[in-house]
Amino acid sequence: MLMFGVILASSGLLLMIERGILAQVGPPPLHPPAGLSRRDGRDSPAELELEVLRDTRNRTIRALCGQRSMPRSVWELPPGQRRTVLRHLLVSDKYRFLYCYVPKVACSNWKRILKVLDGALESVDVQGKMDHKSDLVFLGDMKPEEISYRLKHYYKFIFVRNPMERLLSAYRNKFGEIKEYQQKYGVEIVRRYRKNGASSAGDDVSFSEFLQYLLDEDVERMNEHWMPIYNLCQPCAVRYDFIGSYERLHADANHVLEHIQSPSFVRFPERQAWYKPVTAETLHYYLCNTQRRLLRELLPKYILDFSLFAYPLPNITSEFCRQ
């Protein structure tokens, strides 16, 4: 089990949740904007904040993963959890790295990079729908001894994102644009949580209905687009060498590309023109128009993503929502 009670009690997060979530509590250091570097040899304030952020993450992960009941390797995970993480670890044997992809955290662009590095794609700028399966190597398709070798010897990294922002991004994309998701999930969500919702085509799911669905859903049976990052990538069972942030995506991506010594022509792709980012204002609007009770009850499912990766809990106090 994920030991939610231990994390909540030890970090004080339970008290924050019970109080209705936290205007008066200072968040961890903000994720600095991308593009700031230390090449001039001096530490900028943003770089110092980044150092504190990474130290906070590392200490929290060590504290949690040092608990006796937590898994020390993928082989200690229950079979279902092991399948999930191995299915999300992509392999580059040529550059000796493992990347745990997290949907809604720029994973399509990272998959483009893997395909370019492997020679399956000419450029990261090639237009067209991304095939998320072909020309990619998944750790879960390998033999146990091959898996163990790569987990021990390869450079391992993930990219993370504010949990509520990631959920909102998934909601807007899947239920606002993707008919397959509207039919597979939307129809059932509306039928389950709305009076007289039987005639819905699944394209009008409200954010509150989506969150209620997540609240009732078993975490380990969730779709990968809204499954917690902890469950997807198991940072206790897999010791990641680098945890990048969506908030400083290009700077952190460049750090990884430099570390793996990728060719100079390989760069992290620019955001697609059609992409609709989740802004702070957008997140503010959705959170402040959602019942506090619903958010309070949902947060424990994502509390490890907030605490391990040093994201502040959402602020939905009356004062904040009046702004």
Features:
single chain, 323 residues, mainly alpha, four-stranded mixed beta sheet, 14 helices, globular
Radius of gyration: 20 Å
Shape: globular
Would you report the number of β strands?
4
Q: How are helices and strands ordered from N to C?
A: HHHHEEHHEHHHHEHHHH
* Total number of helices: 14
Largest sheet: 4 strands, mixed
What spatial order of strands do you see in the largest sheet? 1-2-3-4
Beta-strand percentage range:
5-15%
Structural class: mainly alpha
Q: Distance N terminus to C terminus?
A: 39 Å
Question: What's the average pLDDT?
Answer: 86
> Low-confidence segments, ≥5 residues, pLDDT <50?
1-40
Helix content: 40-55%
Q: Mind explaining what this structure looks like?
A:
With 323 residues, this protein is mainly alpha-helical. Helix content is 47%, strand content 6%. The protein is built from 14 helices and four strands. A four-stranded mixed sheet has the order 1-2-3-4. Strand 1 (89-92) and strand 2 (97-100) form a beta hairpin. It is globular and about 55 Å long.
Write a short abstract of this structure.
With 323 residues, this protein is mainly α. It has helices spanning 4-11, 13-18, 45-65, 79-88, 107-117, 144-153, 163-177, 179-193, 207-216, 229-233, 249-259, 280-288, 292-308, 318-322, and strands at 89-92, 97-100, 155-160, 242-245.
